[in-house]
Specification:
- By secondary structure, the chain is mainly beta.
- It has one domain.
- The chain is about 0% helix and about 40% strand.
- The strands form two sheets. Strands 1-2-3-6-11-8-9 form a seven-stranded antiparallel beta sheet, with no helix packed on it.
- The chain is globular, with a radius of gyration of 15 Å.
Length: about 200
């Protein structure tokens, strides 16, 4: 996994066991639209993770097909002494609905990423990626708010990495839970909305 999956235990925590049923306001059957951002959602998990539903990020087999407005994933992230495992929900933000639909980048505008995430939100992070580099930031308290571009860093757990430069093209946004060394973390992540902030 990329850098957003690593880091110590200071900002990781259980994501709780809330019912995974909060509907999304931006997506239908796995395809989301929010402002100028549009594309398919997907799930991902590291070696210690179990996640439902499970699918890839290419959008060739939409993860939430026939899920209506639901962009929810649940499961458990096993203990990992290397802190390399993660699990979560991602969204390609410049991808056409009709095939061929490759994942492309878009230069974001505004002040940051506006998010609204339901379920257990303790320890969750927001990450953005251009397909090569990944920057992350803590999810706002309570799961809702705008994450400023200046908050994103390749090592968001201690701020020692490379900061994101506002306007740099990105291809995806993810809500993720990083592993802890000695504790298995059950999680429920429901993406209500993500978009330009």
């Amino acid at each position: 996994m990329t850098a957003a999956g690593t880091g110590g235990t200071t900002d990781a925590g259980t994501a709780g066991s809330a019912a995974c049923s909060t509907p999304s306001t931006i997506a239908t059957n796995g395809y989301g639209m929010s402002g100028t951002w549009k594309g398919y959602a997907y799930t991902f998990g590291g070696s210690t993770a179990t996640i439902t539903p499970g699918c890839d990020s290419a959008g060739t087999m939409p993860c939430f097909k026939m899920a209506g407005a639901n962009l929810c994933a649940s499961g458990s992230l096993g203990a990992d002494t290397t802190f390399m495992s993660i699990a979560g929900v991602g969204w390609n933000i410049n991808q056409e609905k009709a095939a061929p639909n490759p994942v492309a980048t878009v230069a974001p505008t505004g002040t940051g990423v506006a998010v609204n995430v339901a379920g257990g939100t303790a320890g969750l992070r927001v990450s953005i990626s251009d397909g090569t580099t990944e920057w992350c930031a803590p999810l706002p308290a309570g799961g809702s708010g705008t994450v400023p571009w200046a908050s994103f860093n390749t090592k968001c757990w201690d701020g020692s990495g490379t900061a994101y430069t506002a306007g740099t093209p990105i291809a995806k946004v993810q809500i993720l839970l990083p592993s802890m060394s000695a504790t298995a973390l059950p999680f429920c992540i429901c993406v209500v909305s993500i978009g330009p902030g």
